[in-house]
Write a structure and sequence with these properties.
Blueprint (H helix, E strand, L loop, with lengths): L2 E2 L5 E2 L2 E2 L4 E5 L5 E6 L23 E5 L4 E4 L7 E5 L4 E2 L4 E3 L4 E11 L4 E8 L2 E9 L9 E11 L4 E6 L5 E4 L10 E6 L2
Antiparallel strand pairs: 1-4, 2-3, 4-5, 6-8, 6-17, 7-16, 9-10, 10-15, 11-14, 11-17, 12-13, 12-15
């Protein structure tokens, strides 16, 4: 049985232009070398100018740093955890689509005890998704959580944001990562 190790071989005292894999048997005797195939997806062999690196995925993930009482407005997630496409503005809470394509958006809202609210995913002001949570049960004093997922085809420059809904337009978002969890907003482009 042959035990293979990769190493560069030298012929007639000088390295050859082509790289080879030399195989050694258990006794250490060289077996006929085989040329290495250079290809664009093999980062270990081949010239660097021929390597192709994968395109960076466009994605963002933001959260509320603390609990926040919101009244009839856009929810501004002030803690940016990831933003590879540089589209999220933490000053106004709006994500500007960096390039056209199909995107997945998800948001999680934690509702305060005895509170009720609706959140809406809006694209250029038009409602494209919604989520509703009702924690008004007076017999159970606990926080309630809701998560929604929306898949959309968007154009470059579209404005995407989460705002309070028309039905229940105010509420307290809980964001206590060490105890109860975070209210978050995320999105990524499907390649």
């Amino acid at each position: 049985m042959l035990g293979c190790r990769r190493k560069r071989t030298v012929f007639q005292g000088r390295p050859r232009k082509r790289r080879f894999i030399a195989q050694e048997n258990v006794a250490g005797a060289l077996v006929r070398p085989k040329p290495i195939r250079t290809c664009s997806n093999n980062p270990y062999f081949g010239s660097p100018q021929r390597l192709r690196f994968p395109k960076q995925t466009i994605a963002f993930h933001v959260a509320l740093s603390t609990s926040k009482d919101v009244h009839d407005s856009t929810i501004v997630y002030d803690q940016v955890k990831l933003d590879t496409g540089h589209g999220y503005n933490q000053g106004d809470g709006i994500y500007i689509v960096p390039e056209a394509g199909t995107y997945v958006f998800t948001w999680t809202s934690i509702c305060n005890v005895y509170d009720v609210f609706q959140t809406v995913l809006a694209v250029d002001g038009a409602q494209r998704g919604s989520s509703f949570k009702d924690a008004r049960d007076r017999n159970v004093a606990e926080l309630q959580q809701t998560t929604a997922v929306v898949i959309l085809v968007l154009n470059q420059g579209d404005h995407v944001f989460i705002r309070m809904g028309n039905v229940y337009d105010h509420g307290t978002f809980i964001s206590l990562p060490m105890t109860y969890g975070e209210s978050t907003f995320s999105g990524w482009k499907l390649d």
